[in-house]
User: Fold these one by one.
Assistant:
Number 1:
Amino acid sequence: MATILVVDDELGIRALLSEILSDEGHTIELAENAAQARAVRERMRPDLVLLDIWMPDVDGITLLKEWGGAGMLTMPVIMMSGHGTIDTAVEATKFGAIAFLEKPITLQKLLRAVEQSLVKTAPRPAPPVGQQPVSYVRPETAVQYSAPSMGMLPQSVQPVSMGLASEQSFELDRPLREARDAFEKSYFEFHLAKENGSMTRVAEKTGLERTHLYRKLKQLGVDLSRNKRGT
């Protein structure tokens, strides 16, 4: 999996993106401004950067230009903005961004943009001003984020058959509560193993909100670390 740097001055955005991408198996580094982003970039070479445009100290476009001019744009950069336009997206791609996402960012578009950016293995330097921009996620296609949409996934993301036993036997000569808990524990363990420990996909598969799912698994004593995918 990849190491992803998320740069955004909003704590809620950083926390949300970190949770989703960590759940997908990525290692996440966080920065709330350009100064912190520079420090992380000097310390390591992330595989991908999610960079907010509007920040209080130095805006994302300026930081993108800075990295490009210093030859430090050796990783794909996805720009993010809650006030973006087509012109903003074009400007970002002119200076080296590989994609543009408008806030609020949907789960589907985030995962698709990250996946597409990571498969581009060749480093992408900033092209000269005036060069045709690369393709980007069009802002007008963004859909408002709402809590239920957290469980939605792109149709292209299909679970891989793990060869798991989808049928099990349960002892019925026991109290209803115990029998129900035993079934639910096996049910969730099956889906966790099938989805490689991805809470996002298990929540979508089982029809539960993520917070409810976490509480349920803790109540049942399900070992979450056993099926967590490696980084």
Number 2:
Amino acid sequence: MNPLIGTYECKVDAKGRLMLPAAIKKQLLPVLQNGFVLKRAVFQPCLELYPMSEWEVLMQKVNKLNRFKKKNNDFIRRFTAGLKMIEVDSAGRLLIPKDLVAFSGITKEVVVSSAINIIEIWDKDKYEKAIDDATVDFADLAEEVMGQDDEDGIS
């Protein structure tokens, strides 16, 4: 799958249905029929929408963990808490389950943002705050993550 591109402001209706932005839906067309996994993010109060093919790749890594180590078992339990299989309906909407709406604090206004191979779904106010908070030290973070000159680095 090609990397996804774009950040879009959307609305969620009273039933928790989100109309995918046309540009995102177009990028997801090759994988739309396979469905998605929607889960809680690990580090932020947002949701992550994985195309099924991306989810399967991630699960291959998780499945290699030794389940006879308590920390691995605890991680798997927490990582998979609240998982939902999601399909996009004929109108191009996906239903965000109530427990995931509660976790993410999603109200009516949301931001749908690409994160390379997945989609993040944020309450708009929480997204703006997360972006503002990250701006303060983004230059240092960019240098640390992307400015490496060794074989693991990008440059």
Number 3:
Amino acid sequence: MLRVLRRAVTLLGALATATVLSLALAQPAHAATFLTHSQATSQLRAAGITWSSSGNCSDRYTSTCTSFEQIRQSTISGVVTLRNYTGCAINITAGTEVGHASGTYSHWNGYKVDISKYSCISNYITSTYTYVGYISGWGYQYRAPSGNLYTDEGNHWDILYYTCGC
């Protein structure tokens, strides 16, 4: 009986410690994690995702650059998830740099990236996601089950990541 009681106390102690640790490490669901350019490129490189800019630069305050400064972790995770699901090559051509439309869910606020329009990724988006319609002034839009929006803007895909899923 004493052995069973000791085991129960040990298990309760371990459970209490694990609970306290998980609560201490947990972040609220609404907390956003913003990355530096270096942190983002490290994750993209590890996933086999490339990026490019017409100015061959990464300055957030220059519109011809492709910057990931202050991009949301959920956006980077979303692009990595897209790459993993599709197996397609992905090249990011725009991140958080100036020169895009403003608003809450904008490039500047870390919610959006633009990617090159390759046939593999285009075929995946148009055959897998729900066609929303033509958005005047923007392009043809598709919605993923996660709610993320993929807009064909002619020479690239504009992706709005509300979540890190496809």
